[in-house]
Write a structure and sequence with these properties.
This protein is mainly α. Helices cover about 80% and strands about 0% of the residues. Helix 2 runs antiparallel to helix 5 and helix 6 packs across helix 8.
Length: about 190
């Protein structure tokens, strides 16, 4: 009887594990997404130094993500199997079909979690792009797009490396992404356009 009561409480543990899995993807597994984006040639993708210097870290992180995801899926499936066995007349094996649903939920959670990091880095990169364009225009240089993109990528990586060295990377990226600063001359040009 005590085992049944214990299982009644343990059945809700997978819900907490799903929340923990989402934050695992967001806080720990984001270098996997950024590594893929760098391979696709995205200039805004910035791989932190602990992942870029140690290439085996990416493989080990991928293994840990797969292991953590499948353990959450297995525990959730076991919970559903136990609920089907306890409260319905169906055979408990029917609850095992929920593993496919949980696999889909895990992939959606991963995409939602890591794309947030991608959107933050894109917003921070385009703030740096606007700054570089403004500096080029204020100096009166010819505006060659390839040079501006290269200078933007160089400045962006330099600033993020500096922030990472001082352990403020996450805070700095959030501040850059949230910044809606527009250089004053650019603002004046857009207001006088009409």
């Amino acid at each position: 009887m005590d085992l049944i009561r214990f299982l009644n409480y343990v059945t809700w543990v997978p819900l907490v594990l799903w929340i923990a899995l989402f934050y695992w993807f967001r806080m720990v597994a984001y270098p996997l997404y950024l590594n893929n984006q760098m391979r696709k040639g995205r200039k805004w993708a910035f791989l932190p130094e602990f992942a870029s210097k140690n290439r085996s870290y990416i493989g080990f992180l991928r293994f840990r993500c797969i292991l953590w995801t499948f353990s959450v899926i297995v525990l959730s499936t076991l919970s559903v199997v136990w609920v089907v066995w306890k409260f319905t007349a169906y055979p408990p094996v029917i609850g095992a079909v929920s593993a496919v649903l949980f696999l889909i939920v895990a992939s959606v959670l991963y995409r939602k979690a890591v794309r947030k990091i991608g959107r933050l880095l894109q917003a921070a990169y385009f703030l740096e792009y606007r700054r570089t364009c403004y500096e080029s225009d204020s100096r009166g240089n010819l505006r060659i797009e390839a040079d501006i993109l290269n200078r933007t990528a160089w400045n962006f990586n330099r600033k993020l490396r500096y922030a990472e060295k001082h352990r403020r990377l996450r805070k700095y990226v959030h501040a850059m992404a949230a910044s809606k600063k527009i250089p004053p001359d650019l603002y004046a040009e857009t207001m006088n356009e009409f």
